[in-house]
Predict the structure.
Amino acid sequence: MLKMTIDIDMGSFLARLNGLREQVPFATAVALTKTAQQVKKDLRAAMAALFEAPSNFTLNSDYIERATKTSLTAYVGVKKGALSWERPEIYGGPRQQALEKSLAPLGLPPAGMWVLPGAGAKFTSGKHVSVVWVRKIVAQIQANAPSNQGKKRSRFTRNADSYFVLTQKTGRLAPGIYYRASAHHVLTMLVFVRPPRYRAKFNFYRVAENSARRSFPVEFEKAIATAVATAR
C-alpha cells in the first residue's frame, strides 16, 4: 500500500479552545476524516484531468482510513491492486499491466517483456484492452494445447481458426499471441515488447498536501462549531 500523512500544527487551533478541551479530540478526528475525504476527491479530479479516458478502477484507486479521537491520524492511500500501474505515474519507472496477470496461466509474457494490443485486439468502452477477452484467449489456448503424454508439449497449434503463441521472433512475426484465420491469414492479437519506462507525471503528494492544508482549517471550524452546539 502507498500512504501519505500530512502534519498540521494544532497549536494555533488549540490556543483558542480553552474550556472546550473535552470536545477537541472528537472534533479533530471528524475534521481529519473530512479532510481525508476531500483529499480523495481532489486526487480523483486530478486523475480525471491528467489521464486519458481513465477507468472507474483508476478513479476509485484511492482509499482513506478514518481518524478517531484516540488516534488523531487520517490516511489517504492507493489500493494494493492499483499500485502496479499508479506507482510509475507517481515515481516513474516500468509499469505492470493487468493484462500480464491475465496471461500468467500460460507463463506469459516472456520474462522482462510487456504486452501491447495488436490489430485484432478487443477494447472496452473505456478504450482499454478487454481483460475478459484476454482470459477467453488464454482458456482456448489451454484447451487446444496437446497433452504431455508421449510427446513434447507444444505451446501452440497450427490449425486454422486457432490461437498460437510465439515467445521469440519467428520470420516476420514478433513475439506475441496470434489468431490463425486460415493457412495464409494470421491476425495479431497481442505483442510482447520490452517495457517502456514512464516519467513521473502524477504529483500525488503535492495534490494531496495542497488539498489537506486548504481543507483542514475549514473542516476544523465546522467540527468545533458542531461540538459546541451539541455539548451537554
